[in-house]
């Protein structure tokens, strides 16, 4: 414990032995303020004792958690010591960390933690219980691992100016869910993450909302690696944009890598506008189109990418208006105008789309 000083942590969480009991040591007094068998209760008690924000530091160990940690304060940091700091969850359908408040919240950070969902129908971190018209700004999740959350790892309602960097997501149903039922959601960055899934019906990034007058703006996916562990997982989609309710604008993909899965699908009855996919690398097993825009996608670009297709079939452009397909180099693939699962790009009822300077192998 001597590695932590008063200025570094408000509370230090540690375990006396494998499986508990667990202790919360006050970073100012050096005294143990809370102890017990449920680390969720201990962390929540530590947070509630703070007059303002602070840092909860988890020492190396395995922490069994069966109750939700509720966060209702700004400027909180939750930090572990890497994958050797495991939060093992067994609470059923309730979330691990629940960010909720009747006011806007800002500046909450999770880093260097390993979240093990143990195939529970739950979420690791959620903002879904924010009060109507309230938002979460400057949420940061970095250098963490999330594994085996059947519902999903991060469920983010009304989240703005948030950053998710250098995390691993393994075998969860939805890795990052953005949705906004009553408020704007946007200006979020997803960068340098590794997503690995080994079963059908998984999504790495899912964007959806039900309020037709709300928008998702400026979400960036940059330098991520999306990977389906098995080639027979045709229902795995790296990024799914669902505009059945809310509008989606300015979704930017730069430098991503996708293997054995559909990279991006965009569909819905509402507006999807200004999708930019550039400088990415795709390898498809041929079981599903790599990029699919279905209906109401307007003013978008697919440029400077490499598509490695295992079977013939490069493009399908059905009833699309003002399409520019130029300077693409197609090698060892026949160009088709059919809506086939082996195609690299499928555009249906699109407008003002540019497909340019791509290499299709």
How many distinct beta strands?
39
Query: Any idea what the radius of gyration is?
Result: 22 Å
Q: What coarse outline follows from CA principal-axis ratios? A: elongated
Oligomer: single chain
Largest beta sheet, briefly?
Answer: 16 strands, mixed
- Strand-residue proportion: over 45%
Helix content: under 10%
Structural class: mainly beta
What separation lies between the terminal Cα atoms?
Answer: 56 Å
Give the helix tally. 1
Average residue pLDDT: 83
List unreliable stretches of 5+ residues.
333-340
Explain the overall architecture.
The chain is an all-beta fold and 361 residues long. The chain has one helix spanning 39-48, and strands at 11-15, 22-26, 32-36, 54-58, 61-65, 69-71, 76-79, 85-89, 97-99, 105-111, 114-120, 123-126, 136-142, 145-149, 152-157, 159-160, 163-165, 168-170, 174-179, 185-191, 194-197, 203-208, 215-222, 225-228, 237-242, 247-254, 257-259, 262-267, 272-278, 281-284, 291-294, 297-303, 306-309, 315-318, 324-326, 329-330, 345-348, 351-356, 359-360. The strands form three sheets. It has a 16-stranded mixed beta sheet that branches. A twelve-stranded parallel beta sheet has the order 5-8-11-14-18-21-24-27-30-33-39-36, with helices on one face. The protein has an eleven-stranded parallel beta sheet with strand order 6-9-12-15-19-22-25-28-31-37-34. A hairpin with a 5-residue loop joins strand 2 and strand 3 (32-36). It is elongated.
